[in-house]
Design brief:
With 89 residues, the chain is mainly alpha-helical. The chain is 71% helix and 0% strand. The chain is elongated.
Length: 89
């Protein structure tokens, strides 16, 4: 009895889905261009996320250690600044 109940419900659902009703909507070229724009935007964001999260760190590791470490670059920046006297003028 219970199985027959679910079969009847499924049959009614399938029959309801098979019917077509008129839809009063206009799908013009603007909507098509918008859909293409959204798809291109999503694909572009996925590519940029891949580049930012995976490619650049992998590229850095493939090159090996950077020419300057963080300490070396900080020392280089400090040495490029002109010497200042501690005496007030």
């Amino acid at each position: 009895m219970r199985k027959n109940y679910w079969n009847t419900k499924l049959l009614v659902l399938l029959l309801a889905l098979c019917q077509s009703w008129p839809v009063f909507a206009y799908v013009g070229p603007g909507l098509g261009a918008g859909v293409i724009g959204v798809i291109v935007g999503l694909l572009g964001s996925v590519v940029l996320a891949f580049l930012g999260l995976f490619w650049y760190p992998l590229k850095r590791k493939m090159r090996g250690k950077n020419e300057f470490s963080d300490e070396d670059s900080a020392n280089e920046q400090e040495s490029s600044l002109p010497e200042q006297d501690d005496k007030p003028q």
